[in-house]
Amino acid sequence: MARTIALLTDFGVDDIYAGVVKGVINAVDSAINVMDISHSVRPHAVAHGAFLLYAAFEYFAPGTVFCVVVDPGVGSTRDAVAVKTGNYCFVGPDNGVLWPAARKDGIKQIVTLTNKDFFLEAVSATFHGRDIFAPVSAHIARGVPLSEMGMTKENLLSCALFDHEVSEKSACLKILHIDRFGNLVTNMRFDDIRFLQEGAYRIRINSRSAAGIFTTYAAAPENALFIIKGSSGFMEISVKNRSAADFLGAAVESGVSVTYEHA
Amino acid sequence: MARTIALLTDFGVDDIYAGVVKGVINAVDSAINVMDISHSVRPHAVAHGAFLLYAAFEYFAPGTVFCVVVDPGVGSTRDAVAVKTGNYCFVGPDNGVLWPAARKDGIKQIVTLTNKDFFLEAVSATFHGRDIFAPVSAHIARGVPLSEMGMTKENLLSCALFDHEVSEKSACLKILHIDRFGNLVTNMRFDDIRFLQEGAYRIRINSRSAAGIFTTYAAAPENALFIIKGSSGFMEISVKNRSAADFLGAAVESGVSVTYEHA
Amino acid sequence: MARTIALLTDFGVDDIYAGVVKGVINAVDSAINVMDISHSVRPHAVAHGAFLLYAAFEYFAPGTVFCVVVDPGVGSTRDAVAVKTGNYCFVGPDNGVLWPAARKDGIKQIVTLTNKDFFLEAVSATFHGRDIFAPVSAHIARGVPLSEMGMTKENLLSCALFDHEVSEKSACLKILHIDRFGNLVTNMRFDDIRFLQEGAYRIRINSRSAAGIFTTYAAAPENALFIIKGSSGFMEISVKNRSAADFLGAAVESGVSVTYEHA
Fold first, then answer.
1. Which of A97, A6, A3 is nearest to A44 (CA)?
2. Which residues, in sequence order, are CB contacts of C252 under 8 Å at separation 6+?
3. Would you call B8 an interface residue with chain A, using a CB distance cutoff of 8 Å?
4. What are the pLDDT digits (tens) for A129-184?
5. Reported pTM
6. Is A13 on the interface with B (CB under 8 A)?
7. d(CA C156, CA A72)
């Protein structure tokens, strides 16, 4: 049985928040592996966190507990939840951040975290990552069943990551993520791009001419926008050896239009 | 018995220094858990490191060894020390960085690190984190008693983090830390704020009007300074969904004045 | 037998790439220690990665597997390789990034990674760190011999990190790395600096006057360039309590000239 907790938060790496969360887990059970997925979700950006979790979770071992803290509503009425799915367990606020991943893996059980036996003794109003989500994740990784954590809940709040508009000549997409290299991850799965299925096309991205669709960065021309199947399976927009984000002046959650016509 | 070493340094994450320290610990004993508290203490800022250690250490399991490297005086006459306290052990330079945490936990034993058997073979003049503090921490985590590490020392250099002036109408505080969200952590414990104890107040922070004191971010109004009990128990200054640091033009170690009068 | 994998990549810490690589390793064998050397190699900068690996590897335990991903040619014709050396194993692209470290430790065996049994089931065109290098590293750490991974290869692509010109009165060096403190690491080993061997010298660095050679930062004067033996054994250029990089306007891979004459 795997005893790994994977962390995804918006704490950044310039603070002690992520370290303290690891300390709390380690204090519950020092045999648990604690792994960072990332602490660089944009502050309070639930949709960004939801996408990164969705893109990462399936690479972890079955049985991994995901402790996810992107929690702008901490201390308000949003629920704290744990979700058992086909292969994993997800712990975090019920604000949509867990939904795309949990749904993909098949939701089996949702509980609202109310049993204070599994919290730190003093629960602050501002840092439930440390006081609730970390110790609950650790107790779940140790094998405590979800049913002891609180009451069953029917549904998770959803998060509409992948809604986009596609017509015969254009697609209106959203940028879910920009990676370190400036590649823009859109919210359309590459394999769903219909205009790629036949013939040659002239493609424009935000009104700028694009060089086409390439399989590798190495094969693309210099200094031109191009489309590539990203490593998470989504359509990405890139410029070889440059930042496509700078090239287009694009930001996470901004829209991007792709138009295409037969060449 | 816990065998965890928690690291707090000013190495940053853009370098190999933290990685090399982990390699040295792992080479002494691969069964030791190595955890990052943070590597983002501001470069050479002893007081900043002292605060972050103080805010984090109690969340770790008893028996944890803290390896703390904020060491502007490396290679000069400052001592290298290990400190046994009620529940933990602290290893680092004797420049004040260990003092607030060690004192809070109750200092039991201090030794100056002089026994080269526990150092790397070649000790550089500039990187004692790698050459002294990492291997000494690892040997302590393995169970070597402090008495074998060097001579007993009477006192640690202190660090005056929490000195501040409070009068009937104002408080002159210092900013100990700014978190990723721009929240300002002051050096006054929230529970010591006398002006909160009775009645309604008009509060100004650095001459700007503040909305008052709130228990959660969610409850505070938009676009206004407010006071909140931070997750470390200190009085924090925040602006909802914005950076209070940007709002006030504040920096770590700068002063902040809070004035208050009956409403 | 050590079962540690140390990661060095250009993924940065603002993304999930490093986290996903750890998940893949953990899914192969959750008993493997995964350690970060750094994820802050400059994007696609093979020589920068080669230097950081060279500076770090010897501090890790014998038997450590280094998984190194600086891979601008991913998806093109560059080979993926595993290299057994005197004490370690190195896994990554054959683009020069492994060469300085592997050569220093003594190359024993090189294989081209072609056996898909040790890859993830679906191999993307853009993320071999996740799909090839991570699972192969994990299987090697578990004890699978290199000979099962693919065909033997004669040579690694080399990387000329340490070439520089030195005359009686000047040295033309290259900056291999700039650390968080702004110290400039040059590509000349400190112990090779002949002009230090005798007498007093007037030294200029990029035409600016330098204060000389100091053993510790503490001993150097304020606001002046000086030369110091860096913790990796290379000649470094520093300014006490300031960034030498800012002082000189220097960048990684830029040249730096050092001139010297008898005082």
1. A97
2. C42, C45, C48, C175, C176, C177, C178
3. yes
4. 999 999 999 999 999 999 999 999 999 999 988 888 888 888 999 999 999 889 99
5. 0.93
6. yes
7. 50
